[in-house]
């Protein structure tokens, strides 16, 4: 009886650690290739996934985005994003999904074959809205969350709020609070949402025919995650787009690059991250389509 209880405890502990890692980290993953290449920045020109105040329909046309890629640990990423304007409001509808399917359970005994195999997933379905005022832009996002591993599941919701403003001399300012919410219990414990405060500035610098946006961001977490500092550069030359970013914490550093090409209503972007941990190279491929 004691052996059965011990085996069950080991299995539950392994399942919980994987589910919590994928579930909580999932909300911190970059959503698109541009967000991966630049780093997630809340100031003007940055990512609406990290600051809902940046939700904006461009070129007076609804935009549709398809994202697909991978993260550390062979985690598969996929997502859809739709942005349109309705009156004075910019609206966003999005779906994100991450899963890992080749997890193996092993005990302390050496063996060629695992005791069993299982998978884990994280899912997010959400809506967002932003509106501009004379003193800046405000935005909010609400989303449903679902985490699963083996035969266990946890559900909940999250809320993001943000503010952005264009300052003088082409400087931009952005601040957001992310991942406020609640999750149901998973086994005996409740997954903890990675609440974060993100603040940054941006500067537009035009050189000849090249449009450049430079970003500087600080990311602070309420839970036991290290503060992160990020810089990014977005360069556009005609129909070509080059992006690069660098982030650092007291434990590790990451360098990311990406490239894009615009053709008619389509724009394709590819991004990749090189980390100091040497545990893989995440990558995302995005297709953006202007619908009108």
Question: Quick recap of the structure?
Answer:
The chain has 292 residues and is mainly beta.
Tell me about this structure.
With 292 residues, this protein is mainly β. The chain has a single domain (2-100, 116-290), classed as Porin, CATH 2.40.160. 11% of the residues lie in helices and 58% in strands. It contains two helices and 14 strands; from the N terminus they run H-H-E-E-E-E-E-E-E-E-E-E-E-E-E-E. It has helices at residues 2-26, 33-38; strands at residues 63-71, 75-86, 89-105, 116-133, 136-149, 152-166, 171-183, 196-207, 210-221, 228-237, 240-248, 253-263, 266-275, 283-290. A 14-stranded antiparallel beta barrel has the order 1-2-3-4-5-6-7-8-9-10-11-12-13-14. The chain is globular. The N and C termini lie far apart (66 Å). The model is unreliable at 1-21 (pLDDT under 50).
Helices and strands, in order, run as HHEEEEEEEEEEEEEE
How confident is the prediction overall: mean pLDDT? 85
Helix content: 10-25%
- Fourth-level CATH superfamily: monomeric porin ompg
Structural class: mainly beta
Q: What amount of the residues lies in strands?
A: over 45%
Strand order of the largest sheet: 1-2-3-4-5-6-7-8-9-10-11-12-13-14
The stretches of 5 or more residues where confidence is low (pLDDT under 50) are 1-21
Radius of gyration: 20 Å
What is the domain tally? Answer: 1
- How does the overall form come out from the CA principal axes? globular
CATH architectural group: Beta Barrel
Q: Specify the biggest β-sheet.
A: 14 strands, antiparallel, barrel
Distance between the termini: 66 Å
CATH fold annotation: Porin
